[in-house]
Design a protein that fits this description.
The chain is of the alpha/beta class. The protein has two domains: 158 residues, FAD/NAD(P)-binding domain; 229 residues, Polyamine Oxidase, Chain A, domain 2 (Alpha-Beta Complex), CATH 3.90.660.10. The protein has 17 helices and 16 strands. Strands 1, 2, 7, 8, 9, 10 and 16 form a seven-stranded mixed β-sheet that branches. A seven-stranded mixed β-sheet has the order 6-5-12-13-14-11-15. Strands 3-4 form a two-stranded antiparallel ribbon. The longest helix is centred in the last third of the chain and has 19 residues. InterPro entries: Amino_oxidase, FAD/NAD-bd_sf, Zeta_carotene_desat/Oxidored.
């Protein structure tokens, strides 16, 4: 039977859209299926009464995001659409915000670290600099950190480096429990992206890249894929009660979903899929009638709230400081990031309970918040970010050496890199693997509509 498509992509997140873009450029007939009514996955945004609300959280560095920048240039996205944030990340300690987290100046200013801890920070940075080339984000399983968890790695240094640097960064940006996730993935990413003072954002929302990619692709939204079955030279997927055949199916969804959808994966693939657990993510967007920012010696766009200080929040993103276009003139927008240990108890809770729990913690950091907060939205992802456990590190090399088959995968979890660059790189890798098997410009008999 002649396949309906050359490639069916399951998932319209950044990984799936990148893979589809690359394969369509090669002349193949590609269709993307997305269960949600919109594209972007965890990088989706929506607009409400002049607010641009990111459902996840994202920034982009001029370093360590090579594949993303190449894709943006190819799509013609101007640099003006990716402006410099120009604000600092602060750490809450002893009743106030300390700016300069993830910046070199933290050696002088402290950024929440005690004087003794700053000496150990200098020692850590010198060690990471000497071994920089060994921290390859594409191969986290091969770094000098080995399989140590973040908490175990941090025990080499003053306790402050865990409590007021590694834990808050891991907890807020990745949603990680430092006793479970491997230091290698986090350190590889931090070494690659460099100083936070150079980070940028998407002016019109974190879905900018997804929308630009989807504009030129055949994307079907609101269609749930039920099962994917690999045959010898092709694969079948059930979509809304119908069966679609493709020469290749790319599962560009979180690993637990991919494992559930793929009916007959080889045992070697299944081992890594099962090892790639995810942490859930939960945040509350707060629409303010005026712009509020934490008091600090330097303007902040993120305030990290360590577990040592707060067991409800992991951080507050000041979206209107990240970019003024996120909120109407004279108003404000915040994102409250839930503490990783708090999320499981709230993930299935009524939205009003989630809002009440998280917003009650804010006045400590932002006096006047209660009267300024006029509306809230809850965003939850059961599969927020790859957990990057030692078990996943151990299984990754074998998975990456797998032969190319009719069903393949893409996602940040493939790279064990919890950032959009990991998803872009995984999408490009999946496209390359697919082309090595199918070749280019040999479309199926019935091309995508």
């Amino acid at each position: 039977m002649t396949p309906d498509l050359d490639v069916a992509v399951v998932g319209a997140g950044i990984a799936g859209l990148t893979a589809a873009h690359e394969l369509q450029r090669a002349g193949l007939a590609v269709r993307v299926y997305e269960a949600e009514p919109h594209v972007g996955g965890r990088m989706a945004s929506f607009r409400y009464e002049g607010y641009t609300i990111d459902q996840g959280a994202e920034q982009i560095s001029p370093h360590g995001y090579r594949a993303t920048w190449e894709l943006l240039r190819r799509l013609g996205v101007p640099l003006d659409d990716i402006p410099l944030i120009g604000k600092s990340i602060g750490m809450w300690r002893d009743g106030r915000a300390h700016p300069g987290v993830a910046e070199r100046r933290a050696l002088l200013t402290g950024a929440g670290l005690s004087p003794r801890a700053r000496l150990d920070l200098a020692r850590f940075l010198a060690w990471a600099s000497r071994r920089r080339r060994e921290f390859d984000p594409d191969h986290p399983e091969a770094t000098p950190a080995g399989e140590a968890t973040v908490a175990a790695f941090a025990r080499r240094y003053h306790p402050d480096l865990h409590d007021y640097l590694f834990q808050p960064v891991a907890g807020s940006f990745f949603g990680w429990d430092t006793t479970r996730s491997a230091a290698a993935s986090m350190l590889s990413l931090l070494v690659a992206v460099g100083d936070a003072a150079s980070w940028r954002t998407y002016r019109d929302g974190m879905d900018t890249l997804a929308l630009r990619l989807a504009r030129e692709l055949d994307v079907v939204v609101g269609r749930m894929v039920g099962e994917v079955v690999a045959d010898r030279d092709s694969a079948r997927l059930s979509v809304g009660g119908e069966v679609v055949t493709a020469r290749t199916v790319l599962l560009c969804v979180p690993a637990p979903i991919a494992a559930r959808l793929h009916a007959n994966p080889p045992a070697a693939e299944l081992a890594f899929l099962r090892a790639c657990t995810f942490t859930p993510a939960l945040k509350v967007s707060c629409l303010l009638d005026r712009p509020l920012t934490p008091e600090s010696s330097r303007p902040l766009y993120v305030l990290l709230t360590p577990e040592a200080e707060d067991d409800v929040l992991s951080g507050i993103i000041v979206d209107h400081a990240k970019h003024p276009g996120r909120a109407p003139a004279g108003r404000g927008l915040l994102s409250l990031m839930a503490n990783a240990r708090t999320i499981p108890s709230l993930l299935e809770a009524p939205e009003q309970e989630v809002v009440a729990r998280l917003t009650a913690a804010v006045p400590r950091y932002l006096p006047g918040f209660g009267s300024a907060n006029v509306a809230n939205f809850v965003h939850g992802f059961r599969y927020g970010l790859p957990e990057a456990t030692p078990a996943a590190l151990r299984a990754r090399a074998g998975f990456m050496a797998r032969p190319v088959r009719p069903v393949d995968y893409a996602g940040d979890w493939v790279m064990l890199r919890p950032a959009s660059e990991g998803a872009v790189r995984a999408g490009a890798l999946a496209a390359s693997r697919t082309l090595s098997r199918l070749g280019a410009s040999r479309p199926a008999a019935r091309t995508a509509a």
